[in-house]
Amino acid sequence: MRTEYEILLMLDPELPDGRHDEILQRARELVEKSGGSWDRHEPWGRRKLAFEITHKDEGVYHLFELTAEPATLDELTRILKITDGVMRHLAVRRVQRSPGRPVAPPPRDVQDEPAPIAASVDE
Questions:
Q1: CATH code assigned at 42
Q2: pTM tops 0.85
Q3: What does the DSSP 8-state code read for residue 112?
Q4: Sheet holding 86-93, edge to edge
């Protein structure tokens, strides 16, 4: 049974751009050769890290969505763990939300806020 996944990938910023493309292409080929589909790729670019990882304070982030068998995800995770240049990765199963249920509440309108109290405590 094919499942939808999201993978957030953090790559070493000191690698040449060609190496970044090579890592992403290898992941895509693995998914597609095993009968899965590469649904979306969203490069987030270079971001500052909250703490250093292997003496680096920045990482290059990529978010991609795919549909694949769980065995394919296991193999992809194994390959990402041993690939030089991959600092971190996180794979999660995508959850389908119902269209009528928002993820976050809508922003409050200024009219919804209570009026400030004008009277002083001394009165």
A1: 3.30.70.60
A2: no
A3: G
A4: 37-53, 56-68, 3-11, 86-93
Cβ atoms of residues 27 and 76 within 8 Å:
yes
* Angstrom distance (rounded) from CA 121 to CA 123: 6
Q: How does pLDDT run across 40-94, given as a tens digit for each residue? A: 999 999 999 999 998 999 999 999 999 999 999 999 999 999 999 999 999 999 8
Selection from 38, 39, 45, 3 nearest residue 20 by Cα: 45
Number of domains forming the structure of the chain: 1
Q: Is 69 exposed, middle or buried (0-12, 13-18, 19+ CB in 10 A)?
A: middle
